[in-house]
Amino acid sequence: MQTKKLRGKVALVTGASRGLGRAIALALGQAGADVALTDILIEGQEQDLGKLGRYSVLAGHFAQSGEVNTLLGAREIQFMGSRSCAFKMDVADLDEVGRVVHMIETELGPIDILVNNAAVMDNLGKFEDQQPERWQRDLNVNLTGAYHCSKAVWPGMVKKGWGRIINISSVAGLMGASLQPSYGATKAGLIGLSKSLAIEAGRYGITVNTVCPGFIATEAVQLYDERMTERIAKRTVLKRMGQPEEVAHVVAFLASDGAAYITGAVIPVTGGIDLLTL
Ligand SMILES: NC(=O)c1ccc[n+]([C@@H]2O[C@H](COP(=O)([O-])OP(=O)(O)OC[C@H]3O[C@@H](n4cnc5c(N)ncnc54)[C@H](O)[C@@H]3O)[C@@H](O)[C@H]2O)c1
C-alpha cells in the first residue's frame, strides 16, 4: 500500500498542464500532499492563440491541439483523496505570481513544497540566428520565474520553519545544450540559484535542491524527430528515454522528511547520458 508521506503538506507545482509538471503534481498528490497546479494553459479558459504561439511555439501547439490537463490533474488528485486546485499563472509575471500564491494559500493553506518546473524549451537554432527577444524570454520564464515563485513562498516557509524548494533544471545545465544556448544558460543558472538559496535556507529548516532530468518522454519531447530521439536513447547507458514518473518519484522523495538532510544537491535523472562512455 502506498504510504502518504506528504499528508498535511501543501505543494505548488508550476508548468503542470502536461509532461513532467503534471507527473510531479500527481506523484505529490499520490504521496498525500494537497497540490496547486499552475500553468499559462488551463483547459476551457480563453487564450489568444496567436499571441500565445508567438510567445512560445510549444504553448501555441498544445493550446491548439487541446492537450492541456491542468484542471484534469487537480480533479485526479482530489479523486486520490487530497485537496487540489488549478490556477492560470505565468511565472514570468511577478504580480501574477504574488496574486496566485495568495489565492492558493487562501484555499489550501501556506505552501510547504514548491516545485519550479515551468520552462520554455523551443528556442533552437544556430547562435548567429538567435534573437535577443527569445534569450530574454527564456531568462524571464526559466530562471526569473523560479526566482519569483521562490520569493513568493519564502516568507511562509521561514515562518513555519519548514520548506522544500525543488528546481527542475536539466542535463543541459550540466553539460550545455547543442543549439540551445539560452536554455542551457538558464538551466545552469538554476543550479546556482538553488545552491545559493540552500545556504541561506538551512537555518530556517528549508532545503533547496535541483533535479536534472536527461531525455524524458514527455509530450513536448515526443514532438522531436523520431531518428533524433532514437539517437538520444542510444547515448544513454540504459539505452532508453526516461519516463516522467521516474523524475516525479525523485521529486516526491526530495519533498519528504526522508530527504531532510539533502540540500544544495544536484541530482541527475538521466539514464547515464552524462557519463563518459568509451
Ligand atoms: N522532457 C525532457 O526531456 C526534459 C529534460 C530536461 C529538463 N526538462 C525540464 O523539465 C521541465 C518540464 O519539461 P517538459 O518536457 O514537461 O516540458 P513541457 O514544455 O511539456 O512543459 C512545460 C510546462 O510549462 C508551462 N509553461 C511554459 N511557460 C510558462 C510560463 N511562463 N508560466 C507558467 N507555465 C509555463 C507549459 O505550458 C507546460 O505545461 C522543464 O523545466 C524542462 O526544462 C525536461
Layout of helices and strands, plus pairs?
Elements lengths: L9 E5 L4 H12 L3 E6 L9 H7 L1 H9 L4 H11 L3 E5 L5 H15 L4 E4 L15 H29 L2 E6 L2 H5 L5 H21 L4 E8 L12 H10 L8 H12 L10 E4 L9
Parallel strand pairs: 1-2, 1-4, 2-3, 4-5, 5-6, 6-7
Helix pairs in contact: 1-4, 1-10, 2-3, 5-6, 6-8
The structure holds nicotinamide-adenine-dinucleotide.
Short description:
By secondary structure, the chain is α/β, with parallel strands linked by helices. Helices cover 47% and strands 14% of the residues.
What does this structure look like?
- The chain is of the alpha/beta class and 278 residues long.
- It has helices spanning 19-30, 49-55, 57-65, 70-80, 94-108, 132-160, 171-175, 181-201, 226-235, 244-255, and strands at residues 10-14, 34-39, 84-88, 113-116, 163-168, 206-213, 266-269.
- The protein has 10 helices and 7 strands.
- A 7-stranded parallel beta sheet has the order 3-2-1-4-5-6-7, sandwiched between helices.
- Strand 1 (10-14), helix 1 and strand 2 form a beta-alpha-beta unit.
- Helix 1 packs parallel to helix 4 and helix 5 packs parallel to helix 6.
- The longest helix has 29 residues, at 132-160.
- Nicotinamide-adenine-dinucleotide binds at residues 14-15, 17-21, 39-41, 58-59, 89-92, 117-121, 141, 145, 168, 170, 213, 215-216, 218-221.
Euclidean distance between termini CA atoms: 42 Å
CATH topology: Rossmann fold
Quickly count the helices: 10
Could you give me the name of the CATH homologous superfamily? NAD(P)-binding Rossmann-like Domain
Provide the helix percentage: 40-55%
How many strands, what sense, and barrel or not for the largest sheet? 7 strands, parallel
Strand content: 5-15%
H and E string: EHEHHHEHEHEHHEHHE
Kindly give the count of domains. Answer: 1
Morphology: globular
Strand runs, count: 7
Question: What's the arrangement of strands in the largest beta sheet?
Answer: 3-2-1-4-5-6-7
